[in-house]
Design brief:
It is a single chain. By secondary structure, the protein is mostly helical. It folds into 2 domains: 134 residues, Helix Hairpins; 67 residues. The longest helix is centred in the middle third of the chain and has 78 residues. It is elongated, with a radius of gyration of 60 Å.
Amino acid sequence: MGLWQRIKRVFRASTGAALDKIENPELVLQQTIRDMRDRVPELNNSVAQVMATERLLVKQKENLSGQVVELDSKIKAAVKMGRDDIATAYIGQLQQAQMDLDRTSVQAEHAGVASQQALKARDNYVLNMKKRTAEAMQLISAAKQAKLQEQLAQTMDSFNIGDDSSTFNEMREKIDRRVAAAEAKLQLGASSVDSQMQDIEREAMDIQLQDKLLAYKQQMGMLGAGTPPASKQIEAGEPARPEAEVLNDVIVNETESGQSN
């Protein structure tokens, strides 16, 4: 193989590869559809010309047929009048008209066949164009679907391979650490000495309120005479009685007082 042939082959291969990369099947199919539709008016013009030729020949055939009939009548009239010279002239014209009629009849017949073939070819082309257009539209839809799938695949690849997943994991770990630290602080705050002292202060306040309630009841004579207030029954160093036990003692004393009365 010569050097020039090798250069041509390399150039064609490189050009073909470049065209394959930049060639868009969707655009090519759309342009093909437009080209097929643009040929329809041209084809219709060609068919119209063939049909016009046929009609013109048919018209000429009719005119020649009428001319033959007219010349035949003139020949007969000249013969009756004894004008053989005029009849002979008419006979020459009749022969020429008859020849023209035969030739025009053949041409008209051929033109009729050509018109039928042209119409059939036009109809076949339109039918084929509609079929190809439908196929092209299906291919265009498939190309669009393939393009969307490619974009989706690229998005999924970038999501799986990119930094998004690592970012989510880092943020999740930070949030989990903050939640754990907040829970630990809350637990420490609940078990601290200040919290326990607040509980003791609330208990002491409840005891004081109960003592005042018993004092009011004693003043109003609702308690027994020998029942001291609950606060006086608590000796130094003795732990405070639960509120439920104090209320039970009050209820028992009231019951005994009511029975004695």
